[in-house]
Amino acid sequence: MNNEELLKENALLREEVEKLKKQLENYNNSRKTYYENNKEQVKAKAKEGLKKLAEENPDKLKEYRRRAYLKRKEKLNENIKE
């Protein structure tokens, strides 16, 4: 490939990146407005999911909570070190 072909390819890839960034921004904005408008429903579904998990598989719930605790502890230690 010569220099001219590389420049053309670079320009095409830059255009594609910009197009994808716009699509991602639109997607994120739509999801954000959805959660703002349906905040209570989303929270209710999450609570139902946790209750169902607690009934069906309490060991899995313990595992999730332990992992969350360890991550919080790790972040706290990182913040203290900085």
Structural class: mainly alpha
Q: How are helices and strands ordered from N to C?
A: HHH
Q: How far is the N terminus from the C terminus?
A: 47 Å
Poorly predicted parts: none
Strand content: under 5%
Radius of gyration: 23 Å
Nearest-integer average pLDDT: 93
Main beta-sheet strand count, sense and barrel state: none
Using brief descriptors, characterize the structure shown:
3 helices, 82 residues, mainly alpha, elongated
Written account of the structure:
By secondary structure, this protein is mostly helical. It folds into 2 domains: 37 residues; 43 residues. Helix content is 94%, strand content 0%. It is built from 3 helices and no strands. It is elongated and about 65 Å long.
Give the helices and strands, then pairings.
Blueprint: H1 3-37, H2 39-56, H3 58-81
Summarize the structure in short:
The protein has helices at residues 3-37, 39-56, 58-81.
